[in-house]
Design a protein that fits this description.
The complex is a heterodimer of chains A (326) and B (293).
Chain A lengths: L1 E8 L8 E8 L6 H12 L18 E4 L2 E4 L5 H4 L6 E4 L6 E3 L2 E2 L2 H9 L20 H5 L2 H4 L6 H5 L1 H5 L6 H11 L7 H8 L13 H5 L6 H14 L7 H16 L4 H9 L6 H16 L15 H20 L1
Parallel strand pairs in A: 1-5
Antiparallel strand pairs in A: 1-2, 3-4, 3-5, 6-7
Helix pairs in contact in A: 3-8, 8-9, 8-11, 12-13, 12-15
Chain B lengths: L2 E5 L10 H14 L1 E5 L11 H4 L1 H18 L2 E4 L2 H16 L2 H8 L13 E3 H9 L1 H6 L9 E4 L3 H5 L14 H8 L3 E3 L17 H17 L4 E4 L2 H9 L1 H8 L7 E3 H8 L17 H8 L2
Parallel strand pairs in B: 1-2, 1-3, 3-4, 5-6, 5-7, 7-8
Helix pairs in contact in B: 1-13, 3-4, 6-9, 10-12
Classes of the chains: A alpha+beta (326), B alpha/beta (293).
Chain lengths: 326, 293
């Protein structure tokens, strides 16, 4: 079959990008990487891209194909063209282009370093034997340990696109992997560290990382696990992000539905204690009143099942507490 | 046969976006879709319950689904986030191990989750169950010439992985509805991405930058308005648009419509009844362009 392949070209870091279309003879069973190789070997030797293992192990060949990041050695032409008429190939997003489909991954690696991505045994005595890990302890790390650091998740991360300080899903998946490792002796510091700005609360839950990860790390779920650990800490400094989560549970437990004005006051103004927060709500509140959009507390109607919901959340909370004690 | 659903309104449609509830029930009447509201349901947790514990999200929403099962009806949502959260729980429990269902049911006093129903967004119901041809026949005022940019919401596209309605990167259900109503779909980068709402209470700069880049892209692509099936996206794109403008340093002023409001206009419903005056960004340009036809 003849396939039309549109590729984003860029001669250098500074040059303006452009699109070039190639016509390639290939089969449905070819990988996207096969197609790129064909173009480079048979039509245009100037096309730059990264490749190495061809086995979804090395993570070198991640690029954007038809709008989202994939490993080009893993995805097949036939699958890509099921509902598209051409292959659109672009470099990974959220990283600067060096040439054509090759991006500068310095920031990606620096962000990974920020989470201290190594199991720390520094404070311990060097043992006579290795640090042991039971199979069930290893099992907890499995999905995060699958990460091949290809950059697909970072490319599509909506939070990284607007927030320079956010370390990214790859770094937080690794953060979970070391935090949950029974051999690591820095768990307490890590919980503090990942709770800081740039850490887990800067994720916007766009699901793109889970969606594009080629090896099932599901970074969003790993981020959720770190958040769960943080929320379980009794002595954690309060913050709007933590109040947001706790208030959700508290208000649903009371009324079934969320009373939005109460939610805003509790979360953003810390029940009136945070004056800056209070001031920040004034313009929003004013314009909602003007437009008749204000969810006044006296208009709020709790769920008719609120007592049942309260009993349910109480029982589940008790169960979770008991489970953690074991 | 009359279509009948167990209607899960969600918190926002009964509060800050009451116009969503009004327009959904308004179009349902005209289309002859019967809605039985789940008066005993509760908030789905909007994705944050899972951050406390997944079992909390599962049990609370298994109860919500069980309420629909008791009526023998499919549950209808009208919010991308509610859909993604409740739909995921239904997928997990319905298609997962019996032991998971048993565990959840231990906590549902007086209810029993069986896994016998579906959870469907209003958008999917219109396209799949009602049908676009039938919808087209109900159009009183064609939206001919109105350029609409879709804003889907992350949870609608990517929240569920077991049962999935459409390709999360090349969806077209909203655009298909626009076309059925006579409007012109405008494609722009960002229609499948995050509005920034989950961060709006504490990481405002990031949240509003996210909203800003998508609104700007839609305007540059020529959209007259944005249409969303998610009231949380609506809050960040409409109610916070003045803050969004400040953060990106550009004037926007693009009206954001709830999906049933756009449909309601085409069905000939009164703009006031659809709550089109309850928006922060004026919707008068859209109303005028429709009424002047």
């Amino acid at each position: 079959m003849k396939v039309s392949v549109r590729i984003r070209r860029q001669a250098s870091r500074e040059s303006k990008p452009d699109y070039q279309t190639y016509s390639v003879e290939c089969s449905e069973g070819n990988t996207i990487l096969d197609v790129l190789n064909k173009i480079q070997w048979e039509q245009d030797g100037s096309l730059a891209y990264r490749r190495n293992c061809r086995n979804a192990i090395c993570g070198s060949c991640a690029m954007r194909v038809n709008g989202r990041a994939v490993l080009t050695c893993q995805n097949l032409v036939g699958e890509e063209l099921e509902d598209q008429t051409e292959l659109l190939i672009q470099p990974l997003g959220n990283l600067p282009v060096i040439k054509d489909l090759v991006v500068d991954m310095t920031k990606f690696w620096n962000n990974l370093k920020k989470v201290d991505p190594f199991v720390s045994t520094a404070s311990r005595q060097i043992p006579e034997k290795e640090f042991l890990q039971l199979p069930e302890q290893r099992e907890k790390l499995q999905s995060a340990a699958n990460c091949i650091l290809c950059g697909a998740c970072y490319s599509e991360c909506n939070a990284a696109a607007v927030n320079d300080d956010f370390v990214g899903p790859h770094a937080l998946a690794k953060a979970y992997r070391v935090m949950a490792d029974n051999r690591d002796d820095r768990t307490k510091e890590r919980i503090e560290q990942y709770n800081q700005p740039g850490g887990v609360w800067d994720c916007t839950r766009c699901f793109n990382c889970n969606e594009v990860c080629p090896v099932g790390v599901e970074p969003l779920d790993r981020i959720s696990q770190i958040k769960q650990t943080i929320l379980q800490q009794e002595k954690m400094e309060d913050s709007t992000a933590l109040r947001h989560r706790r208030t959700m549970v508290e208000l649903v437990k009371e009324d079934g539905w969320i009373d939005e004005s109460k939610f805003g006051l509790k979360v953003v103004t810390d029940s009136g204690r945070d004056l800056k927060g209070l001031v920040s709500l004034i313009p929003l509140g004013t314009r909602m009143v003007v437009k008749g959009k204000m969810p006044w507390p006296w208009k709020f109607k709790p769920s008719e099942g609120k007592l049942e919901i309260k009993a349910l959340i109480n029982a589940v909370s008790q169960h979770l507490k008991d489970q953690r004690k074991i | 046969m009359t279509l009948k659903y167990a209607y899960y309104p969600g918190c926002v449609a009964k509060g800050a976006c009451k116009e969503l509830h009004d327009s959904t029930t308004g179009i349902a009447r005209v289309l002859g879709i019967e809605l039985v509201e789940l008066e005993k349901a509760s908030c789905c947790g909007s994705g944050t319950f899972k951050e406390t514990d997944e079992f909390l999200e599962d049990t609370v929403n298994a109860r919500n689904i069980a309420l629909a099962e008791e009526l023998g009806l499919t549950m209808m949502t009208q919010c991308s986030t509610c859909q993604g959260v409740i739909g995921r729980v239904n997928d997990k429990l319905k298609y997962g191990e019996q032991s998971q269902r048993d565990h959840v049911n231990q906590y549902l006093d007086g209810h029993h989750y069986q896994g016998t129903t579906e959870v469907k967004h209003l958008l999917w119901i219109l396209v799949q169950d009602y049908g676009l041809d039938a919808l087209k026949q109900k159009v009183q005022k064609s939206l001919n010439g109105l350029k609409c940019g879709a804003f889907y919401g992350c949870y609608l596209l990517r929240g569920q992985t077991v049962t999935r309605y459409e390709d999360p990167y090349h969806p077209h259900s909203l655009e298909d509805v626009f076309t059925a109503l006579g409007a012109t779909p405008i494609e722009y980068e960002g229609r499948t991405q995050c509005c920034g709402w989950p961060l709006a209470s504490y990481a405002t700069n990031a949240s509003f930058s996210m909203a800003g880049r998508h609104l700007l892209a839609a305007i540059e692509a020529g959209a007259d308005c944005i249409v969303t099936p998610c009231p949380l996206c609506h809050l960040n794109l409409d109610s916070r648009q003045p803050e969004v403008e400040k953060v990106i340093g550009k004037k926007l002023g693009i009206p954001i419509l709830h999906l049933p409001q756009l449909i309601g206009l085409a069905l000939g419903l009164n703009p006031e009844q659809l709550g089109l005056s309850r928006h922060i960004v004026s919707t008068s340009s859209v109303i005028n362009s429709v009424l002047s036809r």
